[in-house]
Amino acid sequence: MTKKLIIGPAEWFIADADASGVIRLVREAMTNRTTVELGLYDGAGRAVTVFLNGATASSVVLALDPTPRPPSEMS
How does pLDDT run across 40-62, given as a tens digit for each residue? Predict the structure, then answer.
């Protein structure tokens, strides 16, 4: 589970096998301003259900790249 979904200050983890379905549902919620049910994991690895309301969420971040980036020279 290297993929993350960030909604506001909350970070959730996405199982690799579920990534394409989660991406599709997030896109649907944000595009159509609907609510979707997402099967995700919390920081302790527990399965959770997160409801994303695309009508009220101002932004959602999908971090799909498992490769850590080296710190920039400005860090």
Answer: 999 999 999 999 999 998 889 88
